[in-house]
Amino acid sequence: MSAQARTHFSFARVMAVFLKELVQMRRDRVTFAIMLGMPIIQLLLFGYAINTDPRHMPTVVEARDDGPLTRAFLASMRQSTYFDLVALSHREGEGDRMLEAGEATFLVVIPEKFEERLVRGERPEILFAADASDPIAAGGATGALQQIAQTAFAPDLEGPLHMRQASAAPYDIVVHRCYNPAGVTAFNIVPALLGVILTMTMVMITSIALTRELERGTMESLLATPVRPTEVMLGKTTPYLLVGAVQVGIVLAVAIFLFHIPFTGSVPALLTGVTVFVIANLMLGYLISTVARTQMQAMQMTFFIFLPSILLSGFMFPFAAMPWWAQGIGEALPLTHFLRIVRETILKGGGFAAIGDDLWPLLAILALLTAVALRRFRQTLD
Amino acid sequence: MNGAPVIDVRGLTKRFGGKTVVDDVSLRVPRGAIYGFLGPNGSGKTTTIRLVCGLLRPDHGEGTVLGHDVLRESALIKARIGYMTQKFSLYEDLSIRENLDFVARLYDVPDRAHRVDTALEDLGLATRGRQLAGTLSGGWKQRLALAACMIHDPDLLLLDEPTAGVDPKARRDFWDQIRRYAARGVTTLVSTHYMDEAVQCDFIAFIAYGRKLIDAPTREIPGKVGLTTLRVVADDLEGAAAKLRGMPGVDLVARFGTELHVAGVDAAKLRAAVGSLDGMPGFAATPVEAGLEEAFIHLMTESTDNMQ
After folding, report:
1. Tens digit of each residue's pLDDT (9 = 90 or more) over B132-164
2. Touching check for A28 and chain B: CB below 8 Å?
3. Chain B residue with minimal CA distance to A6?
């Protein structure tokens, strides 16, 4: 073999790095266990622990009227299991104080002469104030309130008051809250967790791919061989593509068999999206490892990426409710697009047509990350 | 390239920050030679080796290694050199065989499995191929590292303090190995601290503060250093040595068995100093030819560690 030929791209050398990484991965049992155990633990933890439809929320009632309609409404609230009536306030301002102090999540104010005014057709207002500091906590209960009121008042609006029922509700529920989250349900969070888990593990594991060699001093030997940057990159990331595939399998199995997530969309579309997303994350991690000098730095940079991924991708908070600049950051994160793809395919029954708008940005991010990582790879020790 | 030097570089200069670590170093190493790099810690030995093998880009300088341009063709150079780093830089979590196999793959070594088997046998580790490299002792790690950087039959070996921290027996075995490679035409550039290793080299370059001070065939080194040496005997050898140390003209007092070798660059002052001992019981002084040992001791004591 001529010397010239030896400097061209060589699959044998990719294979060399690939096999070496596989062996090292297998031998580092703790990391290996974390890679396989983490998806399961996170799923069970978040899937069951995070309840976005919380019930039994402490509620204070300020009833300035005490008729049968009021009593029926309060009984109905209790029955819905959303509300635990912790106090009845008779003095003005006491309910506000309890809400502010966090002793109650909700304050319901029934106005004076509520029944009398309802009968007269004046559409009296029930004030419903929700502690907005935890918007998700308030979401379910707030949504249920209209239904509760309707069922509470319906029996009493029979007979002579029937005329009041026929039209629109003869009362008005005024809801005070500064935040109204999109209805996040368990079905929503479990598929999204797939993206979060992949972001966490894929970025973290490849972020130390090169820094580990630097710290252990093996980089010097590696760079003294004819191995090329693309060969190192492919050889080092491909093993984790396999790990990613296993993680996807675990998460989807748990999602379907434990959480009974209805899978309605196109499987090839989902798998295409997942594959591009996993590779994008591997490249992101690899890029970090071309920048970081130590494994510690690599970890810090990983978390620097991870936090906005959680907060600005639409995983935790509704994307549409964010300001324009935060949406801009979100659009640059692979997780944002993946969440849309996964919700589109798993929950909304979409196929390739539906995910196109997010597949292309994901591919663009991937191409950019790869190009920058290859440029950043230091072939010398300078 | 018969006859042409394997390493022919001129004016290599490397700066880190504002500090010049290698300053205008030129090297010509003929094929098959063992070329020794001598110098105190921090003098620029490692950096020079890294410049030669393309691991660092020089700020100035030019030349060829194995006939390829040192600035533009480092990929071609890398394919034909074996570089052994100062610190063990194979994978401690890979087995001995896996390490050799990995390196053989990176160099696209033909008939790889057989080559790895042979290397293991040569090492005497044929039965321990599955042992993790991290569990080897220092001497064995160093032999494994040498085997790894020889697995693709390179034309040029770059060894950076290869025997640091290795016991004398292992060091001797190591050098026998290097000699055998040299006989096959492999060129070796080796940096070292040890005098007994330096005398094994065909050529010696002495570096301090990034500058090459001396570069000559090993047997010419004492003449280049220019030492005059007197052999001194006396009944009270320690007393004589104590008196001589620090006297003007005396650069070096070294004890060799039952005699002292007293050396200095200024012959007249040296003779005057030694002559002042006349009258001590059993005193005698005779001129001897300056040897390599004195030359090295002189060079090494003249230059303290170059760390800043």
Report:
1. 999 998 888 989 999 999 999 999 999 999 887
2. yes
3. B79
The DSSP secondary structure of B202-222, one letter per residue, reads SEEEEEETTEEEEEEEGGGHH
Confidence check on the interface: ipTM exceeds 0.85, yes or no = no
Instruction: Kindly state the tokens that stand for A61.
Output: 């009632």
Rounded to a whole number of angstroms, the distance between the first and last alpha carbons of chain A is: 31
Exposure pattern of A287-315 as b/e (b: 16+ CB <10 Å)?
bbbbebeebebbbebbeebbebbbbbbbb
Q: Where are the alpha helices (DSSP H) in chain A?
A: 3-6, 11-27, 29-49, 68-79, 94-101, 114-119, 135-153, 162-166, 186-207, 209-216, 218-224, 229-257, 267-291, 295-312, 324-332, 334-342, 352-376
Cβ count near A257 (within 10 Å): 9
Contacts of A23 in chain B (CB under 8 A): 94, 98
CATH 1.10.1760 fits B228-289, yes or no: no
Backbone angles phi and psi of B74, in degrees to 5? -65, -25
Tell me A133's DSSP state. T
Task: Look up residue A136 and give its amino acid.
Answer: I
pLDDT at A154 over 60: yes
- The domains of chain A, with CATH numbers, are 9-50+184-376 (no CATH), 57-176 (3.40.1710.10)
User: Which runs of consecutive H residues, i.e. helices, occur in B107-236?
Assistant: 112-123, 138-150, 168-183, 195-198, 221-225
Ramachandran angles phi, psi of B150, nearest 5°: -105, -5
Q: Is some CB atom of chain B closer than 8 A to the CB atom of A33?
A: no
Q: Cβ B57–A382 below 8 Å, yes or no? A: yes
